[in-house]
Amino acid sequence: MTPHINAPAGAFADTVLMPGDPLRAKYIAENFLDNVTLVTDVRNMLGYTGEFNGQRISVMGSGMGIPSISIYAKELITEYGVKNIIRIGSCGAVSDKIKLMDVVMAMGASTDSAVNRSRFANTDFAMIADFGLLRGAVDAAEKLAVNYHVGNLYSSDLFYSADESRYDLMEKYGILGVEMEAAGLYGVAAEYGANALAMMTVTDHLRQGLHLSAEERQQTLNEMIKLTLEAVSKLK
Description:
By secondary structure, the protein is an alpha/beta fold.
């Protein structure tokens, strides 16, 4: 038990799926897992453990932003022995190669946050995904015929930013999309010896001003969950 997670020892599986919204964690647990148990609910940051095709899997909300996901990821790894954390989220595309409802897998995560410089002696640390998790996700996407992209994301500390010129710079350097958590998750995983991957569905296009409807967002969420569970089911 920690100040932020009130689950008993052994309550979490080796692999935890982490959507930002705790109600999405509840939705995933109730609609995709069997034999589900609510294991934590501090501050309504809901976490569940259940089974998928007989494999034990957990799902828990992370909240919004690098500070929030960093707290939960660190405690899951160091206090509960979690080995794999997969962020399931959404992003806004900046590259014209990316379309709404595509899936973006973050091979790397650039950021304007200083958290990883703080942990890495005030020098730049390259935030990258675990190759095994990434390879599994790519295999699952190809099996399910999902339109996916692998590359660099940008984890922003600001959700609302007036500086749209930064999108030109991001596109020049091959950034695929913008979200708010991946770089923090990758830094925590590296520091504490766990594996991490962030996978996003494209719900908005920041350059083109395009947005999914609520119904389309739910559709993409369901497809993302199926993709993630297919990938997780291959873990040894």
